[in-house]
Design a protein that fits this description.
Elements lengths: L1 E2 L5 E4 L2 E4 L8 E7 L2 E6 L2 E7 L5 E2 L2 H9 L5 H18 L1
Parallel strand pairs: 3-7
Antiparallel strand pairs: 1-4, 2-3, 4-5, 5-6
Length: about 90
């Protein structure tokens, strides 16, 4: 069991994987099956990710949810999310 961090991420094998922003600060369980990370809140499956060697693994919708906590304009959120996620892929 682990706690979802403020960046809406959990850590598994030194890599971070995103969950929906509403789970920040909540305890979740991580289960691995067939090269996939399954993330559960209580008994509810809240996210799955293919295991990766990338340090940060954000799903675009999770990242947009995180941005929407600070920015209200949806066009701006879309623009910033697209730009930032592309940069993360290049840098990491």
């Amino acid at each position: 069991q682990t706690i979802v961090r403020k960046d809406s991420m959990v850590t598994f094998n030194k890599c971070k994987y995103s969950v929906p922003a509403e789970y920040i600060g909540m305890p979740v369980r991580l289960l691995v099956s067939e090269n996939r990370l399954h993330i559960y809140y209580s008994t509810e499956l809240i996210s799955t990710h293919i295991l990766s060697q990338k340090r940060l693994n954000y799903k675009p919708d999770h990242y947009k949810q995180l941005l929407s906590r600070r920015i209200s304009d949806t066009e701006t959120i879309e623009e910033i999310a697209t730009k930032n996620l592309k940069q993360l892929d290049v840098l990491l």
